[in-house]
Write a structure and sequence with these properties.
Layout (H helix, E strand, L loop, with lengths): L1 H16 L22 E10 L2 E4 L6 E5 L4 E6 L2 E10 L2 E4 L3 E2 L10 H9 L1 E7 L2 E6 L5 E5 L19
Antiparallel strand pairs: 1-2, 1-3, 1-10, 3-4, 4-5, 5-6, 5-7, 8-9, 9-10
Length: 163
């Protein structure tokens, strides 16, 4: 008798879990997360600071790629890595960059690239270019979609000249 009662209770509970009625729709969230903005890949073509310009010798060796709304992929010459970043109303910051540790050629500009990227405070898309303003007014990094670009990519900056 007792086993028959347990069996009946088990059957009822299994039947209730297998209902064909659709689940009610979840309530809409009051704080919806905006869709991630994918800014894509950009090549560092130069930096300006105090009227001087740093020309990147080979922009194809220095790239940032906004992989998603929180991760930036970095190519710093012969090394690759990733970091978390935040972008909120133009305010920009990059977390610690985890990189491979290959020995790059003697003409590498990887140290300048990484130091400047780490000190970025704001990001501004402009035309075919992207600019990252550096902390404490130390200058601006300029990026272009095309690594062969040396003019017009940096948000209104003209042709870069080595100094």
């Amino acid at each position: 008798m007792r086993s028959a009662l347990l069996f009946a209770m088990l059957a009822l509970s299994l039947g209730a879990g297998c209902s064909s009625a659709p689940d009610p729709a979840p309530a809409a969230s009051m704080s919806a997360t905006p869709a991630a903005t994918h800014l894509g890949a950009w090549y560092w073509i130069g930096s300006t600071s105090g009227g001087q310009t740093l020309l990147v010798l080979d922009p194809a060796r220095y790239q940032i790629d906004f992989a998603d709304a929180a991760t930036i992929l970095v190519q710093a010459d012969c090394n690759r890595g990733r970091a978390a970043y935040s972008l909120d109303a133009g305010a920009f910051s990059v977390g610690p960059i985890g990189l491979t540790r290959m020995a790059c050629p003697a003409d590498s500009q990887d140290r300048e690239f990484l130091a400047q990227l780490a000190s970025g405070t704001s990001l501004k898309p402009a035309g075919n270019g992207l600019s990252i303003e550096l902390a404490e007014g130390r200058g601006t990094m300029h990026f272009a979609r095309d690594p062969k670009s040396s003019a017009g990519g940096g948000g209104g900056v003209g042709v870069f000249r080595a100094v």
